[in-house]
């Protein structure tokens, strides 16, 4: 099942008012990154893949203050790098190696993200709450994001668990009907003893340089195995809560939260929108993504770590509206699919 979003991320109201020069430079860098993914050899990334233009992992419309000479709060061309580099060297790579002339005179904010990879509450619970460990029986572990039903028959009568493709569908290597266990494989889960759901649908990941927009999948839950409540551990046991079923577009500067398998309940801030760049899927190699949300950690605690992939991200306010599906992370930054794209791609409505 292929997916292309119906809305251009650069047209989202949350980033209107950004100058055409910044948008042109952002799109030029994104196209150069995409060409690099398309033209490289298949397989895992090597050290030489991170040299020169390969050091640039992604680009987005962010806010000043993250680095460079952009005043705090001002819209900024934000470039994400694997290894720290000086601003003059970075600009030279963008203008000369990537041939993005539009960036020659623009202030640039630099974020050292490291190499960005797909990113476990680990107990076995029945019914299993969202935010807890789950995965494909063959060797994946991530997080149950949220529950949903399909938009049309017969899927409108199915209880569906939503997470990432790389968590439920083993990065395209699974097939519909495969067993999904809770907890996930790394946390001791196995099938049939810990069966929670059957793989129902996923959007294939593309590793050929074609743009990816979502990393998502659904599992068809067995009766009594899952609950729409989210949960996290406290000193007194497991705390349950619910979020809103009404999705909302992410906005720069918004405080957001998530509960996931590894770091449990955390809060962060939406740093940038419209991110385009490379996600390294280890044995499969890099995949090019576009239109993504970037969340920055608050304080010293990471917003996410490996195993939190699949978590739903929601506004940290009285409404708790879902805004994204967490799927990858780097140094201090987390990446999420816009929630509206996930719902559209999987043809589902959330149950919360």
From TrEMBL:
InterPro entries named in the record: Peptidase_S1_PA_chymotrypsin
Organism placement in taxonomy: Bacteria, Bacillati, Actinomycetota, Actinomycetes, Streptosporangiales
The protein's name in its UniProt record: Serine protease
